Amino acid sequence: MPCPSVKQIFIVLLVLAWFLQPGPAKAQLSLEGWEGELEGRGEYTRDDVESEADERTFQNLRFSEILRLRNKGFIYHPGLLTFSAGTAIGLSQEMPSSDGESRSNYGRVLGYDLGLHFLSAKPYNLSLFGSRGSGTVSHEQGRTETLSESLGGRLSYWNHVFPLRLDLRRDHREDEFRFFGVPVRHDELKDSLSLSGNNTWDNHYLDLDYDLIDLEDRIFPTLSVTTHSGRAYYRYLFGDWRDNAFTSSTSFFNREGLSNFTQANSNQILRMTHSDTLTTQYGYAFNYASAAEATTILHQGDFSLGYQPYANLGGEFKLSGGISSFPQGEQKFLSSSLSAQHDLYDSLSTGLALRGGLSFLPEGVQENYGAGVNLGYRRKLPYNGRLIGGFGLDYDTLSQVEQEGLVLQERHTAELASPFRLERPLAIRESVVVTDVTQAIIYQEGLDYLLQPFGDFLEVLVLFGGRIIDGQPILVSYRFVPSPSLTYATTRLRANLGLDYGWVYPYYSHDQVSPRLISGRDASFLERRQSDTAGIRFLWNWPKVRLSLLNEYQRIDARRLAYNALVFSQSFWYSPIRTVTWSLNFGQSVIDYTLPRRESESYRGQTNLAWSPELPFRLTIEGFGGFNILKSETSSEWYHVGSRARASWTYGKIEIIPLLEYTVRSLQSTLSREFFASLRVIRRF
Predict the structure, then answer these.
(1) pLDDT above 90 for 101
(2) Beta-ladder partners of 7
(3) Fewer Cβ neighbours under 10 Å: the N or C end of the chain?
(4) Considering the entire predicted model, what is its pTM?
(5) Position 242 confidence tier, pLDDT thresholds 50, 70, 90
């Protein structure tokens, strides 16, 4: 970690000098009383890494002596300027060694936490803050050393017309951890500006937001990105009916960096209630999207009429039309639907629907029409049970012309070393863009993930040591190859049945899609798909035990992808006495792919046993472990098991905090044994 600059130290010392200055200034400065602590810390780290190629050893002995001071108060008057200030000043000594080669490092420790609040009691006020700190975070992959710095402020203007808030901040974060002996560093600088305001006047509500983020990646500069985003929302309620409302929502997003992307949309909706049985709704939508040198623009208008003559009988008519501009040319479309819903005896619901549409494309006219029926059944059973069933049948005909497809922001959940599949087949590899949910971070292939083909699909494999965290939601955008010109009819059948008793819930569902070629030569794009899912879920909840079990079987049969899957998930929590807790989470899936041919097995588990005896001092002893095993064409095995002992003993104003931790980690054929010990002695005053 880099040492603090002379400028930073000077600022902290200047603040302390201002606080501690004697003489007349004390009459102008009011302090609540100083709080502080003096800490001495010693840490020892050892990491032994064994692989088929070599053996490596990393050791580090670190000492630090830190003085922390905290205070808060005001200058002249609490309504003028209040403040809170904390600082940490000290020295550090470090003696790392790697494979027998050692060196010594000496540095300064500087941390601070400053807050200034000007005119806090006035409608217009200003808050400034600055902070700097470092620490160590433990996680499944190891221990990460972090350094974070923040500097910024908020300007607020509260008024009866439209309150406003302006936030400006700079965040700098560095972290480093050793992944099986290899140091992995991240260094990001983020500048952000945010302007927001909202207010309500009688029946009006207005909300405005704007955000600017400039993210600089100092390790991989090509991944730096700048984003602009904004949103405006307005709602107006009018008339004698509470549902009479006009809603306007507009937003935009722009990303500049490795992959440029721009999107803007606006939606205007007017809803009117004419009587107890009749409602109408009018809407207009505008959407603009630009990515990969391709731009699309959409104008769409909607109208709907809802009629409910009886409490258990109602219907709706919808009409939609618009014009869109694609790289291939201009497209126009018109669609309508008519639906009715009827409820019988609060147990049986029936629905009927008719739909149709026309699309005028540069390649030709595309038309579709169809109908559907839905049945839903709910019935109470003895012993607080419920019978839940459903049935649906749809028939649609589509006359399709050749065109390329585009998927924006397909959502997935990342699992380390366990690939996930893109939903659309025949994806164009060069067009894939993977981002976080804010789209401000663009992940890089080879650093954060890998793309690998699987039949007609692409799979994304999240890599260890990258920036994507296990369990993190991510977005994937991509294009897929053009579909051929043809006319086909599709029949879709859906059915489900379940028995819900709370503690046990068996269920079954069936979904079948059957396309049939009517005209055209190339039917390879059509895909018959059938899926069956059956499972049972158990839930038990007692004062000392909580248990959840889920067993599910899924069968998918399609021309491009077919498999049988068994999925099991177990969650267990047990506390026999107040001082002992044990948790266990275990999941496994066995997937037998018949097309393309492949067998895949994955096992994931995590357990933690903690004991906190009732002693004059605090003591917690933990045992933990976890694993992630994937057996497939890209097999991987990840294990970690270890123990941890933490204690805290207080004698007067002195606190002693020892920590011991030992962890064994294994990835493929590489084994890492990590030992960490630390002792902190804190004297508070």
Answers:
(1) no
(2) none
(3) C
(4) 0.81
(5) low
